[in-house]
Design a protein that fits this description.
heterotrimer; A mainly alpha (497); B mainly alpha (496); C mainly alpha (501); A: 497 residues; mainly alpha; 22 helices; 73% helix; globular; C: 501 residues; two-stranded antiparallel ribbon
Amino acid sequence: MIAWTFLTALIGSALLFLLPARRAGLARRVALAAALAGCLPVAVAVWSFDFGAGAGAAGFQLEVQREWIPALGITFHLGVDGISLVLIVLTALVAVAGILFSWNVERAPRHFFALYLLIIAGAYGVFLSLDLFLFLVFYEIVIVPKYFLIAGWGSTNRSYAAMKLTLYSIVGSALVIIGILAARVASGLDTFGLLELAAASFAPGLQLWAFPVLFLGFAILAGIWPFHTWVPGGHVAAPTAASMLLAGVVMKLGAYGALRIAMPLFPEGLEAWRLIFASMAAVGIAWGAGAALAQRDLKFVIAYSSISHMGFVLLGILSLTSLGVAGGVLQMVSHGVIASLLFAVAGRMLHDRVHTRELAVLAGLGLRRALPFAAFVFVLASAASMGLPGFSGFIAEVLVLVGTWGAFPLLLLPAGIGVLLTVAFTLKALQQAFFSRAAGGRESADAGAQYEPISLPEIIGAVLLLAAALGIGLYPQPWIAPILEAMNSDLMRVLLP
Amino acid sequence: MNYLELISHVLPEIAVLVTALVLIGMGCAGGSRGGGKAVLAVTAAGLGLALAAVVFGPESGRLLEGMIVVDALTRLFKAVLLALTLGTALFLFPGGEAGGNEGRGAENSALLLLALLGLLVVVGTENLLLLFVGLELASLALYLMVVFAAPAGRPAEAALRYFFFGSVAAAFLLFGFSFIYGATGSIDLRVIAKVLAAHPVEPILPLGVGLALVGFGFKVAAVPFHLWAPDVYQSAPAPAAGFIASASKVAGFFIVAKVLVLGFGVVEGSADWGAFAMGWAPLVAVLAALSMVVGNLAALAQQSVRRLLAYSGIGHSGFILTALVAANAEAVRAVLFYSVIYGVASLAAFGVAGCVLRARGADRLEDFAGLGRTAPAAAGVLALALLSLAGLPPLVGFFGKFQLFAAALSGGTPGTVPGLLWLVALALLMSAVSLYYYLRVLKQVFFAPAPADAAPTRDTSAGTAVCLVCGSVLVLLGLFPSLVLQPLQRALVQLF
Amino acid sequence: MDPLLPLIIALPLLASVVLALAPAGLARRIALGFAFAGLALALAAVLRYDTAVGGLQFVFRYDWIPALGAEWYFGADGLGVLLVLLAGLLGPFALWMTPPELPLPRLFFALMSLLQAAALGVFLSLNFVVWFLFWELALIPAFFLIKLWGGDRAGPAAYQFFLYTMTGSIAMLLAFLALFRATGSFDFIDLAEAARAGELMPSLAVGAPVAAGLVFAGVFLGLAVKVPVVPFHTWLPDTYAEAPAGVSMILTGLLSKMGLYGMLRILLPLFPELMQAWMAPLLVLALASILLSALAALAQTDLKRILAYSSINHLGYCLLGLFAVGAAAGPAAGLAAGREAALAGVCFQMFSHGVTAATLFAFVAVIEARSGGLRGLHDFGGLRAAAPMLCGLMGVALFASIGLPGLSGFVGEFLIFKGAFGLVGGWVALALPGLLLTAGFLLRVLLRVFSGPLPERWQAFPDLTRREGLMLFPIVGLMVVLGCFPGLLLRLFHSGFALLP
């Protein structure tokens, strides 16, 4: 049943590729229908998920297992635990919102949405796969559509940015493949099943090099410092929907892989390398925020903020405390929602209307008056991004910081600096983009008339994402509980001392 | 054994030969001038007959002391070779004419079939001498095709280079084989394997294997024996290039795998990191590493798409040889599987490149600009082929490469660091590099605006059909690799 | 489970939602309606608070995030009730004094209500996570209120305000996370009990002995920025000066109390040992807040900036009382009376300062509205002749601020000095010159603005309108009443404070 999450996206994608050119106008509707259809199995999964399954179980529910490539011991094996559950909910949410914010795509919409749905399919698949080969298939399926979306529909320096992003991704995947193959060969088992491999024990010597290879492969996609340089260019160049997906979902694939695969497979390697990677994550928090402060382009600001926020994810999962890991996973969801919202405002609501993202130029336009809804959404999204209480980011970051206190108290310093810088750059961006005084003289009641009014799909998309950010912030229990539950499974328990 | 039995076992080869003779006859009669379509029809019919003969022919047999071998594996590969040749013909002989040598459609077709005949012989034998003869038959036919392609009045430099390198390769191969004969007293692979297993290794044997390896290196264009490949790929007529890149390569890897693993499995040696042991494995490992690095890095700098594909092919030889180093059943399966899908992807890529070349007269990257608009089917299948070559899911190239690397590592003992990891890591890195130049091509295809002044490339009906077949093979096998993997597995069980 | 406190907090939240949806023309009336309803609820809380029993009353708890030990946990002791009353009073007051022709009225009133809700939430929450939620919630509306409706340099001022407070907040957050790591609880009551049992410090100091000190410093920084304590005050003069009148009133009346409230509710109960150990530097900061800000006020010529520094100065007395209590922790019986007096004084001073400072800002707004934006000390003179009622009332408020006996300001300062003198005598003596300086800069205002020759242009300076009078008379009257009958409020503390020994 849960296979229908990515099957709907794949079918939608295929339909769009085959859609006759003269019916191109239908493309966005088909895409929306496919994305909504993908929400159904997600809803059913949430509905039929047994939240009180209890510890000691394998932890995965709603499993699907079919023979696929017996010659290599590869099976088609899907399953859901609390962690993947919240992440597929995120994917469904961002998928729908992203289409709503791309309602105005004019250039080759069929191919745009077809590629878009391919990424969605890959994301669902990654979060659900319990077979490492299947995981890899989905993990790599995402790479090329990313490239085409950016190179074909992007903006600033798109060719270079798309290529850089793609090469980073593929090098990351190469490392992942090495790690996975090493695990399989060293285990001596004829399987790629995650659960089976995780149950095998690996020699410390192997773990010592295989863990960093695997973890770094994943972490590159999660934007870990200092391998984050693909993030800003790629996110900025991407069209709005792709930015939303990249920041909202694709970066999570890396973090998820690190948590779900790298860490449980090689716990001893993890132990040895933990401090180093956690330090990199913490530096990333401060570094990303500091770099964001220096940016002049609104999208660059948001892109660097993603690096900072993903630092929290990695720091949280590396803390190896149940609260820290829960915080890391919740931060994935939270950042997924918030970053897509910010990119939606910057890309769709502002850039598509004003045709600039330069903060200095935006400052002169008096956009608070001209686009009050955009201003409203951006204010709330900024507050959420700063981690103000009441929004999802706060809960997640607090959980991560609690975990970090236990594991690496000293890393709180860069993390704290990062949070502070986040406040600074968010306020700066907010102020310049919407609330600049420079425009005081030119503000007039009809300032909004020159821009196309905010459309209904945008409003729906923004409300969806805002509701998620606020909903998680005010009532996080239904999100935290399944994640904590998942940490008790046989697979994940090794992570907690 | 009677003649009827013999004929029934070589019926596919006979069908191909007869078709080639018919085509030569048509060429003499000037049939190709008026009826290019007739040539194509005859070619297709002959290949179809041969295919039927493979499918419905005897299931196994070993005649004339291994000179003619029919088993599941040889049948599978004969079928693959026939299909690839059929695809090449359909794709690149629209109306029986190939660019640069109008009016020689029938002769070209005949030569193509003769080359195919050579390969069929190569695939269907375990006798070193017959193997050599088959290889030379194929090579001679291909030399001629390349010579035909040279514009009148200009020295056929590419053809000369191809011929020169080919002859040297043949010489090495023959030297190698004779030393092997000297050392083991046989030219039958199975006998050789038995002798090697039973007796200590003669000092002359390594020399023989090494020389043979050099010869094979030429055939599969492994560095440092690759120098002929870029020029030939670029200047050969489209069908010849397509054939060299697909069918000939498939046969090459088939025979390398079979000879090395079947005949010389005993003297493999080891290329494991820190545990080198002399044998052919370290040599192959070195060839693989060099091919991957040189092929992929050189491809980065190419402007001509066919040269780019040539270097990418060299790189792929490296990938395939990587798995061969492990030299077990799993490795052979991976090698054979990958060589088949490489053949399909390569055929598609060269086919599209040939179409562009015919329409635009050149195959620089810029000539591919706008292809996505004017010829969506060709552009689509080119994208599938290149991304499959790059090894991205859900295309079969991903599974293929994955299996190659998994096989390469499979030789290690559980619980330790796999010894070939260095080679696999290098391969993965180079595979990542390869994505860069494939994307460079695709960027032109899909995003660059088509130049207004030049004639656009259009899809042809036969071409579109081949495109569709290749594309669906790449996707379908990507999703369900067991479709080919299971028969291959069964065929290999018989072999080992 | 008493729904009163959630109701008190929810009412302004509801108001902001209603305001966002209501027609702009009605915004002011709706806002005022909600604000007066809030005042009624606050009065109800004061009247229902059983002073004979004391302690925490109206307790409300509801689980929120079990993993984080977060729950909706509200409760009020005498101090909480007092501050609820203060918020209840200042809410309608500030709205009332907001000039009628205001751009974006709906947004303005919605944000004001939000600010109100945040302050109330801080005064009533007993779980750190919830408390912090409201603590930070105050930032966003304050930022936009300053930025969008403030003076010419409001942008940088708002930015500075936000960053300073956020820095403090993050330090505090990290400190509390450490507390949570050590104790597994975010509950103020649990933490205070652990501290009383002497378990908090040892569990914090596990690993590194400096940890406890760092945690204390983090919490202190967060609170000190909000109060503010010199030298963390530099954001304040600009912010107060640039904010529109109604907002300045709330900032000085309520937001500064959030910091002090936090010190009473968190620092004193949780870190008695450290308060005692660090008493000297803390008292130095209190003295600096009193003396330096008074000197700075003397050097200002802008009425709003004078009031801003005066605010720091007055809160300095509260700090003095607070730190004196902290310095004298311990079982010695002789100290109990002094502690009680000082604490009562601090609380009374908080209330009194909230009312008087807000009133003074209201008066400056009234003057500013009449002078076309001028508010320099030297722009005026002799206004007494032109606007006797305005000057009379403002004079009373100024004297209340100076601490003239018979007015509310006296009671608090007197109790603080009386109590603190018994605890840390020498330090208190050092603070005495502050009283003179305070009187000095406030009298300077009185003299410069109200007396002297009336300049030509202010001949027709209008007196208070009826509308202004309707609000200002009762408020100033309250200062007199409280000055004469301080028992009205002090009875709330008869049974001691919750959490404090």
